[in-house]
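agent> fetching stored inputs for the adenosine-5'-triphosphate docking request
agent> found them:
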Amino acid sequence: MSEHDSPTIATTVQTSETESTDRPTVTTGHPVIESRDLSVYYGDEQALQSVSLGIPNQQVTAIIGPSGCGKSTFLRSINRMNDLVDTATIDGELSLEGTNVYGDDVDPVALRRKIGMVFQHPNPFPKSIYDNVAYGLRIQDETENLDEKVETALKRAALFEEVEDQLDESALDLSGGQQQRLCIARAIAVDPEVLLMDEPASALDPIATSKIEDLIEELAEEYTVVIVTHNMQQAARISDTTAVFLTGGELVEYDDTEKIFENPEHQRVEDYITGKFG
Ligand SMILES: Nc1ncnc2c1ncn2[C@@H]1O[C@H](COP(=O)(O)OP(=O)(O)OP(=O)(O)O)[C@@H](O)[C@H]1O
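agent> prediction call returned; pasting tokens
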């Protein structure tokens, strides 16, 4: 786990004794993203069940759990990507730095500039390496010192040295791991506050995966990173905080990553982590 100078987070997990449901209510010291009783439905199917958690600033938060438990749904709720699904409806609250992400006056496109996203399969545009990174800056009309901004983003994404002599060449000619780091450079070029990553390394080989993991830890020195991963070793290696979702979109436990992996409160979490199901 990273040792950077993030604020100390006091994580409290209240279990069911004082509550009518068996779900934890989790609060953290300085959450940058906060969900309160967030439920998401696709048509009649409930994909998230009243999820309450606070995601701490400038740390890596991992979301883990078996297939179909709502990890991606939670991630996509943060930047309103679920708005793009016709059947999706949302109940409850989700805020970014205290502002309701689902408020009437919030423009989802502007919101997604503050909340960058990286997907499982690298998806560079069929353009040059340079134009990929410059894309969001041009849309926002932030073209002053564009070369410098592109270079900085590529450096932050640990890609610059590998591509500095081929910035005008097609991004599609890069390896899968390089393409994924390019997508990270594209996401951070516009200086978002939060980076969401949905299985960012699952399509990559072990060496490329290890580079992405190192990069994620470095990025958390500047950004709040939320990563969905199926890979529990990866969550244990790179995250500071871990949320465990189980079947039916229930957040069962949320705590410091070390605690989740070494001494979880819930038997179901221990069973999942030790591979008894999922
Ligand atoms: N666009 C959609 N339309 C209808 N149902 C959906 C949609 N997206 C997800 N679901 C359903 O919502 C539930 C949660 O899906 P989600 O993709 O969030 O889970 P996940 O934990 O990320 O799964 P995986 O690990 O397999 O990617 C599943 O039952 C899934 O079938």
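agent> quick read of the result: The pocket of adenosine-5'-triphosphate is lined by residues 42, 47, 65, 67-73, 85, 87, 230 (CB under 6 Å).
agent> awaiting further instructions
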